[in-house]
Amino acid sequence: MTSNLLNHQIDDILESVLEDASGDVYMVNPSRDAIEQFVSVATNFDGELPSVHMLADERTLKDVMDDFIVASNAADLVSQGALSLRTLEEAPENSLLVTEDSVVAIVHANDRVGGLVTDDESFVADTHDAYATRWEDASQFNLRTPPITDVRNTLSDEISAGAEEDFSAILDSLETARGDGDGLDEVTISLLVAAKNEALLYDISKWGEDVGIASKATFSRTKTKLEDMGLIDTEKVPIDVGRPRLRLKIGDERLTEADNGQLATVAQSILN
Fold it and tell me: Beta partners for 25?
């Protein structure tokens, strides 16, 4: 990759770099959009990914990783050894992609994005070494979201295959899952899926806590909110010893009539 990447989208630039790179790649000071696009491109990448070391502003990383869809896919990449995250104390002026063979400066000009490339051996080697040193000194970013592969596999094993299919279909229908009005959060999605499949509150909240989505208390509070709003309903299920457990059920017929692609949209319209 020796030519400048002009009039490209950020995802095109990232894909070009990943296709040509080997060894360690440093992604330095990426924008929020670049982080999101990197996770998307890397998740769908057809081939062997290089090891990407992302050095990013801590506040930007936290904001991006508040979206469960982005964070859970990023966690998958981390678990595969394709991505590691650390934070920058002092950011350079530009966003950079530093491979063993080239340095790409990402330049934004209004709605245009360009990747300005140099493959000068001495400059590339010095830059790569400089960011390798900064990487060693940087603080690790703690990504608390579980990998989406673990979420799906355990949901299928511990609740049902149907619940996992519903969960995946809802995520696929959403652009974001951060619960701020633009998308449902992961706990709400889990409870809606559990209600659609008439799972026990105990089972879905234990699964959610075990896999690392949220605590049982958070599941309980969210269940109460959704029940108060009429989205879900509960019925008591007696057990041999102890208090009866609660089976979750869909409480609004608009949700009952919606397919998985519509369930999130209908739920959001009711919540808002």
Answer: 52
What residues contact residue 224 under an 8 Å CB cut-off, 6+ apart?
Answer: none
Q: Is 226 exposed, middle or buried (0-12, 13-18, 19+ CB in 10 A)?
A: buried
Whether 131 contacts 125, CB under 8 Å = no
Burial of 225 (0-12, 13-18, 19+ CB in 10 A): middle
- Strands 232-237 and 95-98 come out as unpaired
DSSP strand pairing (51-56 vs 24-28): parallel
N-term to C-term CA, the chain:
48
Q: What is the dihedral of CA 101, 106, 107, 109, to 10 degrees?
A: 130
């400066």: which residue's tokens? 105
What tens digit of pLDDT does each residue of 182-225 get? 568 999 999 999 999 999 999 999 999 999 999 999 999 999 99
Strands 5-8 and 112-118 come out as: antiparallel
Q: Around Cβ 38, how many Cβ atoms within 10 Å? A: 25
List the helix and strand counts (H, then E) for the chain: 12, 10
Q: Give how far Cα 7 sits from Cα of 1, 32, 113, Å.
A: 16, 20, 6
pTM exceeds 0.90: yes
Strands, DSSP E only, in the chain? 5-8, 24-28, 51-56, 83-87, 95-98, 103-109, 112-118, 139-140, 232-237, 245-250
81: alpha, beta or left? (left if phi > 0; alpha if psi -120 to 50):
left
d(CA 267, CA 259): 12
Q: What is the pLDDT of residues 35-50, one digit of tens each?
A: 999 999 999 998 899 9
